User: Fold this.
Amino acid sequence: TYPSFEGFFGQNTDFLYYSKHVRLAYSPFLAKCVQSLETWDKFFTNLFLGGTIKDALSLLKLDECTRQYVYVRSPILKLGDDSYRHRDDGEHYITYPFFPFLFYLFAKNTSPPRTWSSSLFNKLCDDDNAKDTAVAARDWT
Assistant:
Protein backbone atom coordinates (compact mmCIF):
# COMPACT_ATOMS: atom_id res chain seq x y z
CA THR A 1 0.00 0.00 0.00
CA TYR A 2 1.10 3.56 -0.50
CA PRO A 3 -0.25 6.64 1.29
CA SER A 4 -2.52 8.35 -1.24
CA PHE A 5 -5.45 10.64 -0.47
CA GLU A 6 -6.86 10.05 -3.95
CA GLY A 7 -6.59 6.29 -3.45
CA PHE A 8 -8.13 6.35 0.02
CA PHE A 9 -11.19 8.31 -1.06
CA GLY A 10 -11.48 6.66 -4.49
CA GLN A 11 -11.34 3.02 -3.42
CA ASN A 12 -14.92 2.81 -2.22
CA THR A 13 -16.37 2.80 -5.75
CA ASP A 14 -14.11 -0.10 -6.75
CA PHE A 15 -15.39 -2.11 -3.81
CA LEU A 16 -19.03 -1.25 -4.52
CA TYR A 17 -18.71 -2.37 -8.16
CA TYR A 18 -16.20 -5.22 -8.09
CA SER A 19 -15.87 -6.55 -4.54
CA LYS A 20 -19.29 -6.38 -2.94
CA HIS A 21 -18.20 -8.80 -0.21
CA VAL A 22 -15.68 -6.27 1.14
CA ARG A 23 -16.96 -4.07 3.95
CA LEU A 24 -15.52 -0.61 4.46
CA ALA A 25 -16.51 1.61 7.36
CA TYR A 26 -15.98 5.32 6.68
CA SER A 27 -18.58 6.39 9.26
CA PRO A 28 -16.25 6.36 12.30
CA PHE A 29 -13.68 8.45 10.39
CA LEU A 30 -16.33 10.93 9.27
CA ALA A 31 -17.98 11.18 12.70
CA LYS A 32 -14.87 11.38 14.87
CA CYS A 33 -12.28 13.08 12.63
CA VAL A 34 -14.29 15.18 10.19
CA GLN A 35 -17.22 15.82 12.55
CA SER A 36 -19.48 17.95 10.30
CA LEU A 37 -20.61 18.45 6.72
CA GLU A 38 -19.25 22.01 6.79
CA THR A 39 -15.82 20.72 7.79
CA TRP A 40 -16.02 18.03 5.08
CA ASP A 41 -16.73 20.65 2.41
CA LYS A 42 -13.81 22.83 3.51
CA PHE A 43 -11.50 19.82 3.89
CA PHE A 44 -12.36 18.39 0.47
CA THR A 45 -11.96 21.77 -1.25
CA ASN A 46 -8.58 22.35 0.38
CA LEU A 47 -7.33 18.85 -0.31
CA PHE A 48 -8.39 18.51 -3.95
CA LEU A 49 -9.34 21.91 -5.33
CA GLY A 50 -6.41 24.28 -4.94
CA GLY A 51 -5.56 24.18 -1.25
CA THR A 52 -2.63 22.62 0.53
CA ILE A 53 -2.46 19.33 2.38
CA LYS A 54 -1.46 21.09 5.60
CA ASP A 55 -4.48 23.42 5.43
CA ALA A 56 -6.81 20.51 4.72
CA LEU A 57 -5.48 18.37 7.59
CA SER A 58 -5.70 21.29 10.01
CA LEU A 59 -9.49 21.17 9.63
CA LEU A 60 -9.75 17.61 10.97
CA LYS A 61 -9.55 16.33 14.51
CA LEU A 62 -6.52 14.04 14.27
CA ASP A 63 -5.11 13.32 17.72
CA GLU A 64 -4.35 10.35 19.95
CA CYS A 65 -8.05 9.88 20.76
CA THR A 66 -9.22 9.85 17.13
CA ARG A 67 -6.28 7.99 15.57
CA GLN A 68 -8.10 4.66 15.87
CA TYR A 69 -10.84 5.96 13.55
CA VAL A 70 -8.63 6.54 10.49
CA TYR A 71 -8.88 2.83 9.52
CA VAL A 72 -11.77 1.99 7.20
CA ARG A 73 -11.52 -1.78 6.92
CA SER A 74 -14.17 -3.38 9.06
CA PRO A 75 -12.77 -5.89 11.58
CA ILE A 76 -16.02 -7.88 11.30
CA LEU A 77 -16.67 -10.47 8.58
CA LYS A 78 -20.21 -11.42 7.56
CA LEU A 79 -20.39 -15.10 6.67
CA GLY A 80 -22.68 -16.70 4.08
CA ASP A 81 -25.11 -17.92 6.75
CA ASP A 82 -25.62 -14.31 7.96
CA SER A 83 -23.48 -14.87 11.04
CA TYR A 84 -20.48 -12.71 11.89
CA ARG A 85 -16.94 -13.22 13.17
CA HIS A 86 -13.74 -11.24 13.58
CA ARG A 87 -11.49 -11.28 10.52
CA ASP A 88 -8.27 -13.25 10.40
CA ASP A 89 -5.14 -11.16 9.81
CA GLY A 90 -5.00 -12.15 6.13
CA GLU A 91 -8.53 -10.91 5.55
CA HIS A 92 -7.71 -7.35 6.57
CA TYR A 93 -5.88 -6.48 3.35
CA ILE A 94 -7.17 -3.65 1.19
CA THR A 95 -5.01 -1.26 -0.81
CA TYR A 96 -5.73 1.86 1.26
CA PRO A 97 -6.77 0.72 4.74
CA PHE A 98 -6.20 4.03 6.53
CA PHE A 99 -6.41 7.76 6.03
CA PRO A 100 -2.81 8.91 5.32
CA PHE A 101 -2.40 11.83 7.71
CA LEU A 102 1.16 11.24 8.96
CA PHE A 103 2.85 10.62 5.61
CA TYR A 104 1.45 10.85 2.11
CA LEU A 105 2.16 11.25 -1.58
CA PHE A 106 2.04 14.77 -2.96
CA ALA A 107 2.53 16.46 -6.31
CA LYS A 108 6.09 16.96 -7.46
CA ASN A 109 7.50 20.50 -7.12
CA THR A 110 4.71 21.80 -4.90
CA SER A 111 5.61 23.93 -1.94
CA PRO A 112 3.75 23.75 0.35
CA PRO A 113 2.73 20.19 -0.55
CA ARG A 114 -0.51 19.69 -2.50
CA THR A 115 -2.26 16.60 -3.77
CA TRP A 116 -1.92 15.92 -7.48
CA SER A 117 -5.54 17.02 -8.01
CA SER A 118 -5.05 20.25 -6.06
CA SER A 119 -1.85 21.04 -7.93
CA LEU A 120 -3.59 20.53 -11.28
CA PHE A 121 -6.49 22.73 -10.16
CA ASN A 122 -4.06 25.42 -9.01
CA LYS A 123 -2.25 25.36 -12.38
CA LEU A 124 -5.57 25.75 -14.20
CA CYS A 125 -6.44 28.75 -12.03
CA ASP A 126 -3.10 30.35 -12.96
CA ASP A 127 -3.94 30.01 -16.66
CA ASP A 128 -6.22 32.86 -17.81
CA ASN A 129 -7.75 30.61 -20.50
CA ALA A 130 -8.70 27.83 -18.06
CA LYS A 131 -9.45 29.68 -14.85
CA ASP A 132 -13.20 29.98 -15.45
CA THR A 133 -13.49 26.25 -16.12
CA ALA A 134 -11.56 25.38 -12.95
CA VAL A 135 -13.66 27.71 -10.80
CA ALA A 136 -16.88 26.36 -12.34
CA ALA A 137 -15.77 22.79 -11.51
CA ARG A 138 -15.03 23.79 -7.91
CA ASP A 139 -18.36 25.57 -7.55
CA TRP A 140 -20.17 22.58 -9.00
CA THR A 141 -18.78 20.29 -6.32
User: Anything to note?
Assistant: The chain has a mean pLDDT of 86.
